[in-house]
UniProtKB/TrEMBL annotation:
The chain crosses the membrane at residues 16-37, 49-70, 82-101, 107-133. The keyword Kinase does not apply. Residues 14-133 form the DUF2231 domain. InterPro entries: DUF2231_TM, UCP029509. This is Membrane protein. Keywords: Membrane, Transmembrane, Transmembrane helix. It comes from Pseudomonas taetrolens.
Length: 142
């Protein structure tokens, strides 16, 4: 008699976790597009839009980070993709917070650092969501 034991990490996040995880991407992407528009036009309102979008992205990714941490504690196996996923989320959140502090400066002082940070945070959020929304368990062992 053979039994199949699966990895302890859930294969997909819960629906609320997925909403927070996927919801951070358009907010960080909107901040990036606002920064690009500000870089081209120098209209200060685009900098304000980016600041608020970054805050929204931090809220969503912060909740996704809490869900990922709770899922990691529930997993019996602590190595592999769940840890990478958590570290990607943590990196995007920390760099997003630094980006929010950068955007708190005067509008003319945020370029080009704010734009570069927005690119990095957006890419990290996309990779974290890709990692979090794909199959996170290892292959079944017979």
């Amino acid at each position: 008699m053979t039994s199949i034991t699966s990895s302890a990490y859930r294969c997909t996040p819960s629906p609320l976790h997925a909403i927070f995880l996927a919801g951070a991407i358009p907010l960080f992407l909107g901040a990036l597009l606002s920064d690009i528009t500000y870089f081209r036009t120098f209209q200060i309102q685009w900098s304000n839009f980016a600041s608020w979008l970054i805050v929204g992205g931090l809220v969503f990714s912060g909740f996704a980070l809490l869900f990922a941490l709770a899922n990691l504690f529930q997993a019996k196996r602590k190595a592999g993709r769940p840890v990478v996923y958590l570290l990607l989320l943590l990196a995007s959140w920390v760099l997003g917070l630094i980006n929010a502090f950068e955007h708190a400066k005067d509008a003319f002082a945020i370029m080009p650092t704010g734009l570069v940070l927005s690119v990095i945070v957006t890419l990290l959020a996309i990779v974290a969501a890709w990692t979090g929304l794909t199959n996170l368990r290892s292959e079944d062992v017979k």
